[in-house]
Amino acid sequence: xxxxxxxxxxxxxxxxxxxxxxxxxxxxxxxxxxxxxxxxxxxxxxxxxxxxxxxxxxxxxxxxxxxxxxxxxxxxxxxxxxxxxxxxxxxxxxxxxxxxxxxxxxxxxxxxxxxxxxxxxxxxxxxxxxxxxxxxxxxxxxxxxxxxxxxxxxxxxxxxxxxxxxxxxxxxxxxxxxxxxxxxxxxxxxxxxxxxxxxxxxxxxxxxxxxxxxxxxxxxxxxxxxxxxxxxxxxxxxxxxxxxxxxxxxxxxxxxxxxxxxxxxxxxxxxxxxxxxxxxxxxxxxxxxxxxxxxxxxxxxxxxxxxxxxxxxxxxxxxxxxxxxxxxxxxxxxxxxxxxxxxxxxxxxxxxxxxxxxxxxxxxxxxxxxxxxxxxxxxxxxxxxxxxxxxxxxxxxxxxxxxxxxxxxxxxxxxxxxxxxxxxxxxxxxxxxxxxxxxxxxxxxxxxxxxxxxxxxxxxxxxxxxxxxxxxxxxxxxxxxxxxxxxxxxxxxxxxxxxxxxxxxxxxxxxxxxxxxxxxxxxxxxxxxxxxxxxxxxxxxxxxxxxxxxxxxxxxxxxxxxxxxxxxxxxxxxxxxxxxxxxxxxxxxxxxxxxxxxxxxxxxxxxxxxxxxxxxxxxxxxxxxxxxxxxxxxxxxxxxxxxxxxxxxxxxxxxxxxxxxxxxxxxxxxxxxxxxxxxxxxxxxxxxxxxxxxxxxxxxxxxxxxxxxxxxxxxxxxxxxxxxxxxxxxxxxxxxxxxxxxxxxxxxxxxxxxxxxxxxxxxxxxxxxxxxxxxxxxxxxxxxxxxxxxxxxxxxxxxxxxxxxxxxxxxxxxxxxxxxxxxxxxxxxxxxxxxxxxxxxxxxxxxxxxxxxxxxxxxxxxxxxxxxxx
Length: 870
What we know:
By secondary structure, the protein is of the alpha+beta class. Helices cover 37% and strands 18% of the residues. Among the domains are: 9-229, no CATH class; 566-753, no CATH class; 756-865, no CATH class. Mean pLDDT is 88; it is low at 1-27, 48-62 and 387-411.
């Protein structure tokens, strides 16, 4: 256990104790007068030491722990209580976590007050009586039917147990993990309505583990005690085992006698409003966005269930009777999260918290600035616009949505898009409006996502499969939204707010919320399952995949940050746009050349000095480009690839179903690849050589030059010359790096579908990479043959580019089809003959032993390099 303890539950170690006394159930009575402000059967007061010294020195001297005392009415001994526990971490950024609730009762014996855990729902058999002791508190005073006990002394151990259960990923917990409290301080003991609230600061010992040393650290622990009684208006919903729909759950409840285990989902009682209190520190620019994200769920419920209020002054996180959205000023967090606590027997959510970090607002604002720059840099020419005109959005063909025809929509969209390409016509005021709106929409989606968790919903990473945005129109659609804040009528950005989507899709989902469009399809289905009596089998669910599916890594359409309805199309989109986007990143690195650019920190360097000092790393850039864009698409083309959207068509897949399932998978792969241009276009054409340039690298250089000129028209001739010189060196190195690394990836790959003409494309690339000569001379043989170094000779970081090219020519990409290698062997023989002809010319009228050292070394390495050509 490290100092960043994820979840902590306080109290002494649970002990199974045999008992000869009365059965536990006989010691409890029906609740008649529950704990409340009017019936304070549990009270506690923090007594300031200075006040105690002045008013009652004798009492403090005889009872030095008076400041930690809690008083319990003897009538409370006949009740059960719900104990809630939450922990708040210490520096550098305090955040909180709720822990598993417990139902407890108290019993007085001798000079101690004992707290036991109720075993309702904990026993598979009640034939043998047992008890679970949680804590022993010394009694310090008994008078007038009330027992005063030392709370601090009883709190000496810490238990860790999660507040939420996930039945498809975890086994039922056998118990709690115990840690030792070394020091503690009681900050507050207050009766708040029907709760006794205890706020304690502790130091905890953590034992050494395989990954972390022993440590001692501070935590804030917040407890509440309230009379336990099942809510008669709440109807539990049994989990369906995370099939088709995902809910967080409470820990399994056992039926004594049968041993049957029931797992209930976590959900609110919606017979009354679910009120969320928003912390008052939310920046004014984001208050509406936060509120909209909460109230989105009323669209999903199709009635007013959610209400929003401001958190009262003096109330903090994990204090009783509040569902809180807490804004955290934390610009580098990179995350938001939600946390809930529930009735352990029924699953009724009793309290929830959303921690919303400022990174989504501030990060969204910065992202919007980058989008604006990228749109300007990558604006299409008139010819490119005409080429793309006429494309349609899936689901919109021949459709009239609110009287808005597709052709009219596209005409209007193009008019809006052209505005972005008019240099200097977007005022600073308009830019600010665009940036804030994007950031606010991003916040709307994130808040809706986190509140969805508190309603019980788990992630659904298949949400992107429900968008009807055609990738060919994404640039236009996103520009229209970005500039105007509007969405095309009928456009669906995704199927749920519970997915992790790229920032533009997230912001468009936020716009969907802002524009008060209907709840997204999966969200409605999930709420219908959890909050009605309808069985899962009666609901037509969208495809569902959550963290458990994603963790197994089986499904190519169960990923985070993906986009578009077809995962292969989405990955192809990413690969096709990887070079232009990388070009923009490179061009944006020279943002200081824009006279309107403002540095976040003062930099005392001239532009020429900054150009010289700008760090570029073509090898890392090539690695990242391929890892992020090539590798995911390759994974979707293998025989091992599976797609959960297809898998969900089958309840089970056994020997009877596996052939059909495989056939559907292969058909989907083949059709998707063909629609995106084919294997050769996607994987081989980027390596084609034209005019001695590898096309992927040449495209990067061309895109950079075009974007740089659009962004920095006011750069001086001297600055442009310095940039051109620096970038020429970069592009030369990048060409070799990206080619060598892409060849390496391809040589470790095989495809699940065969494509005619693929082998010829491979041979063409191999030929050019192997035999294109440079102007650099290696040496001259004795017969006068001049040997030149090959243009693409590159050997770095353990990769020999031309050796990989030779392997590519002889690579069996289709192991299931021997005829591929039959055809490929003919082509590789031609390449081998070409190499042999070169060697024969060099050795004409001489022998290898007579070659110069330079030529001999060259020849030996060439033979080895080209040995894969059989």
